[in-house]
Amino acid sequence: MRKDFPHLGFFLFFLSVWSSLSTGMAMAKNETIPVNVGVVLDFNISLGRIGMSCISMALSEFYASHGNYKTRLVLKTRDSRRDVVGAAAAALDLIQNEEVKAILGPGSSPQANFVIGLGEKAQVPIISFSATSPSLSSLRSQYFIRATLNDSTQVPAITAIFQAFEWREAVLIYVDNEYGDGIVPYLTDALQGINVQLTYRSVISPVASDDQIREELFKLMAKQTRVFIVHMFTPLGSRLFAKADEIGMMGEGYVWILTDGLTDLLTTLSPTDIDSMQGVLGVKPYVPSTKDVQSFRVRWKRKFQQDYPLDETSEPNIFGLWAYDAACALAMAVEKVGTANFSFQKTNTSNNISTDLDTIGVSQIGPDLLQSLLSTKFKGLSGDFQIFDGQLHSIAFQIVNVIGKGERGVGFWTPKNGIIRKLSFINTNANTYSTSKDNIGAIAWPGEPTYVPKGWVLPVNEKKLRIGVPVKDGFSEFVKVTWDPNNNNKTQFTGYCIDVFDAVMNSLSYAVPYEYIPFATPDGKPLGNYNDLIYQVFLKKYDAVVGDTTIVPNRSRYVDFIPYTESGVSMIVPIKDNKSKSAWTFLKPLTWDLWMTSACFFVFIGFVIWVLEHRINEDFRGPPSNHAGTIFWFSFSTMVFAQKERIVSNLARVVMIIWFFVVLILTQSYTASLTSMLTVQQLQPTVTDINELRAKGYYIGYQQGSFVLGFLKRMNFDESKFRIYNSPEELVDLLSKGSANGGIAAAFDEVPYMKLFISQHCSKYTMVQPTYKFDGFGFAFPRGSPMLPDISRAVLNVTEGDQMIKIEKEWFGKTNSCSDDNESSLSSNISLDSFWGLFLIAGLTSVLALIIVLAKFLHEHRDVVTGKDSISTKIRTLVTLFDEKDLSSHTCRLPDQPYSGSIEPMPAVRASPAVTNFSPRPSTFSTQTNNDIPFSEEQGTSSSEHGGRSSTIPGRQSSQAIAPPVELANSNQERTILPTSTSH
Description:
This protein has about 1000 residues and is an alpha/beta fold.
């Protein structure tokens, strides 16, 4: 027994510890604090039943995994019975009688609108997982927490779909309550921002009968818009599509887009409802299909079938996931508040008449619970749960297509990337926002067409398109309306503009019936001007306007234009023969600057040749007056190549080769221009400047009904100087008379009219620049018309093809080129700009030749340059030497002294001023040398000094011409008499 005693003691100790732990756990279990929480939902619809089942599952599973929490939420449920008053009564009962600390619900936006006020007054947080209307945010209640998305967050995704498929019109169908009205302003503004017109708003009552729904759908069928945006919940939404399918609005050409309110509930619809919605597009918040979500769906389906065996809902929707996360968030928030005062403070009223609202209590824990909810963050079934600005925010929306027995995802939309095919391809670093339909998968449209619906059709119960056509008297090549004399109702429409529009409409991929209607009175007179005609489209009396209507800003405020030709406003004036009869016509071929440059170069080239030749060429020597005459005579004689002086210097020959080429080009150009001026007809406009018209007060003309009248007023013309013409014939008459004789000096009109007029009267009139640019002729359609994209593409196809050329040739014929010939015949004077290159080459060549000659001369007389004489003495000496004949040249050597090519410098010479005689040409020298016949100073001057030739005595050698003595000055200032050559 003693041996077993330790074992027995250990057993008793273990037993006591286990008993203590069990007692503590039981006491802890019994010490949890219950917290009443209200639930207000519609339990007779699927949304309410799904929300209730998800909330109960959330709390059950949450506390099972958080057994250490001291608080427990106790649900107090109330059925709102799909009524706003019922929801308010339920909330008031929960606050007053159950003293709930928070309310989950209500299920719809209209119910939440009043319940939010009760929560604000009692400081009880209202947590709704399905009240999505943006209008609830305007209440600015801090106690309203939207554990779901605001409906406005899906609007960018819807507009991206419109951009992808280039739809330009839409009809909004929404339920007539708080939920339906909330999205309207956001959707309208967003569609207008992308140039999509919301042509009609169809408001349907929540309690509308099937007949009322059918009647409204027939109204929509009568309109041309075929893109419908549906914003409502079930069962109204399913009833709407059942009737639409019944009357044929789920066939080809129709487009239906669902907002998330109905898209999220597609899983709750019956197979019959899904079958009537085939081809519908929808957007909904994207929830990743994680393992937790898949596991929850399995558990939920089991529990839901047990609780509601008659409900055929197969799986929870996004609202159920938000209800689950909202319940978990509330449980966390209550636990964080702790065991605070959960009581209500009753409100005392002194009024004799009191209501339940007057005696409503105030939750003492309300403010703390609100802050705890706003700070709660966790990973829920629907994604990251965190409240921003009182509501959740979505990362992405999924685009789904109803096909077969359910929905199929065809793409996604994110705020950063726009439309994308798969979320796994999101580039978070890229700022590219795409709205390309290529990023959307294959879509089965209603009626299963093989093409994307264009979003509009011609109404089935209306007439053809009514096309307004202007009625005018002149320029019938553009548009002409002809009435049948036997039947006024039978009208013929012809012209360039009509043919272009017919070609455009025929090029469309679908048929559009239309008819032309003249804008005229019963007697065939114009009913108004072009502005009046355009305004008829704005008033919806015409569906379009076809004619020579110019696109101008004031008209674009009422209609949209599709341009099909370029245009502008230009001035047309008479032309006159400006063939000059002046005696000074021969001066006009060249401009004054070219005349002056040519004259200067003639003198300059003569001077250069004189410098290069006068020391070695007898033709350029003589007294100073002969030098000047030679310079002018030689240079100007080259103009007709009549110079008789020989050129012996190679440098001078190079200069003359260049100069001959310049003279040849200059004279030939002068001859051609002068011939043109004297023989060709010179047609020039009588007025060349718009300012001249204003300054001289000339009368001007414009076409009747044209916008040019307003243009002339803006150009500050005097309105009293305006005259109107209706046809080309009237314009010819006015221009022929002239401004002083009841006519006009110029006419202003659009370029297409002017070109047509000039082609017929090119010998008398011409267009004068500048041309004031405008956007051209265009077809006018109502603003935002869905036909604009298709018509615009068709116009491009026609105008860029051969068909446009054929139409132009048919109405305007072959373009007359006489106006171009007239312009080319206006010979302009030849200016220096055409010859400065030649003058530059000649000048550089001449300057280079001068530099070479001067450098050679200075090198030969470098002893003078480097001497000790003053600068003025050196200059006089060099000038004197430069005027002397260069005996070292081969042209000056004696016949019996062969040219050695060597150059010996000569001593400084002081020549007598009286020495002015000239030697004969080198060919007249005799063969006798200088030292054969010496002469003294007293012997006088030979006959050669006077220009005579030396005589030859028969029987003896001929004597050489004798030069007078020349004094040579040495460095010691001694004078030595030496014989010199007779030539200077």
